[in-house]
Amino acid sequence: MFGGEKKKKPVKGYEFLEKIGKGKFGIVYKAKRISDGHYFAIKQQSSMLDSEQISFIHEVELIKKMDQCPYVLKIEDSFSKGGSFYIVSELCAKGTLKDMYEYHLKECSYVPEDEAWRILSQILQAFLFIHGEKVLHRDMKPENVFLAEGNTIKVGDFGLSEQLKQDDQYLKGEQGTWLYKGPEILQKKGFSWRSDIYAIGLTIHELLTRALPFRGNIMQILEQIKNQSLYIEINSNKYSQDLRNVVSSMISMNYRERQHVQQLLDHEKIRKYITPGSEEWLNHAKNNLKLDLQYEGIIHHVIGGRSHIILSDEPHQDSNSLTSSSKTAEQNELLSQNQSSYSKQIQTIELTQITEKTQATDSSNDQPYYHESLNVEIEEGGQGSGKDYIKRLIVPDGINEKITILLNPMITAQKEAIHAKLSVRFNGRGNQGFRILGIIYAWQGYAGGFFPGIDRQSIGYDGRNGRIYQGCKGVIKIDKYNNGDIITIDAYLPPISFFETGINTSNIRSLLTFTVNDVEQDVYVSKIPQSFRFCVSRYYERSSVDILELSVQPADKAPIVDEKLALPW
């Protein structure tokens, strides 16, 4: 019952049965409503300061806003009596996510992957609704994810949550459990929806590893967070690369790289667990969700800065130095070292490297400088504007370095085959470079100096020399293109079932084609990934890229590529 405590008297028609939890914001009891015998959880907070009373009332008001969402813990009642405040909520008899993974640890087993995808999906659906109400949870962790019948997820404990004002995106302050704070919180950049995504990612990481993400005293934990030194990595023998990639993307150190909840819900494995009939409340949440430019607009992310790899071997040079068999051993060694350095940047980039201002690079060493993100000016076009472009993306004044713009939306395989198309026109003085157009695997990390083709997870088509790059190697040369030319890349993806089973039920193959001024090029890239983004790279202030078309449609017919040269991804 109450572990030696005197049994509590009924309050407001509820009989208190046993204590089931205790935290900073009160004691939680299992209770029975006397009138009908139904069971509930009741949180009691006693001897409250005025500020605590306000917080308690605030929690009730926030949760009531989300009553329509099946994956947020519902409140049945709330009241005060005898100096204490009470919140009556639905009872989750199965415990929490922490109880779930501790059970598996005790049984020497793991949470099944399908179950992990379902849990992640339901949490994200809850946060679509939460963020749609402009609420930031700020204390997401396994103990605050409750399990109802059938292990249905219920996100609860909104004691630290806060509602944003209409035009705000960030909250200042450091509320929340230290273990689940994103690096940006430690940098005093404020708390945003990206911080909630980080905490969700760590929650899933903890569920899969059955261990806390970081361990040690507070100073050791802070250092581990800064260095992304996770206590245990997710077991690659138990969980797929796909699931590990998604979790990794959610806990990216660079908060701007984290996918928005609505983008994550577009992932096929996550979307699979959206229950039929959920459209009404999900659409309500989507309509409420006023996303910033990172999702709602055409720009997902802008990457600036130069890594040493670009300085050492410019991809727009007309020489054949990247592919020539006469390349010296010294050049091979340098390229290999730089590619390795770039990979390490992606995985272990220090917070001190993430700066708001460009840091000068000493040519005598290999240290890159890095812009975390840059702004790009957007000039609107489209119907009724008298302009032939949808949007013009302009490099701002004072920025004379290479930048890469990752575009929305994320393209991902669907139930039926799709055709995604991007047509652009580069603008600049004369033949001013650098201009590259390409695609990047959607879940790939990226560091300063990234451009499409720098690694094996992207493809780039360089206008200055007509080369297609992958792994920073010019794998083949096709037509050059200049400022003012119209370049189109068409991507085709077969149904998602092909990527899951290898069986293609359509005549559409996974490939990418290139066209310059309506002239189809004689090569195509085969086996492109099932999820990717279009991206463009530019140089020099006031140079720009016109987005002439950006579309995703059902693929009604397959492109003819039989006589083209195939470049495997």
From TrEMBL:
Record field: compositional bias (Polar residues): 318-339
The region called Disordered is annotated at 314-339
Assigned EC number = 2.7.11.1
Using the record's annotation, list all stretches that form the Protein kinase domain: 14-270
Which InterPro entries does the entry mention? B30.2/SPRY_sf, Kinase-like_dom_sf, NEK_Ser/Thr_kinase, Prot_kinase_dom, Protein_kinase_ATP_BS, Ser/Thr_kinase_AS
The record's annotation in PROSITE patterns points to: PROTEIN_KINASE_ATP, PROTEIN_KINASE_DOM, PROTEIN_KINASE_ST
Enzyme class per UniProt: transferase
- Gene3D superfamilies documented for this protein: 2.60.120.920, Transferase(Phosphotransferase) domain 1
**Transferase among keywords:** yes
Amino-acid positions noted as binding ATP in the UniProt annotation, renumbered to this chain: K43
Q: Which Pfam families match?
A: Pkinase
A GO molecular function assigned to this protein is: ATP binding
Q: Which UniProt keywords apply?
A: ATP-binding, Kinase, Nucleotide-binding, Transferase
Asked if the Swiss-Prot or TrEMBL record annotates the protein with the keyword tRNA processing, the reply is no
Q: Quote the PANTHER family the UniProt record gives.
A: SERINE/THREONINE-PROTEIN KINASE NEK, SERINE_THREONINE-PROTEIN KINASE NEK2
Per the similarity annotation, which family is this?
Belongs to the protein kinase superfamily. NEK Ser/Thr protein kinase family. NIMA subfamily.
Q: What is this protein called?
A: non-specific serine/threonine protein kinase
Q: State the organism of origin.
A: Streblomastix strix
Q: What is the lineage of its organism?
A: Eukaryota, Metamonada, Preaxostyla, Oxymonadida, Streblomastigidae
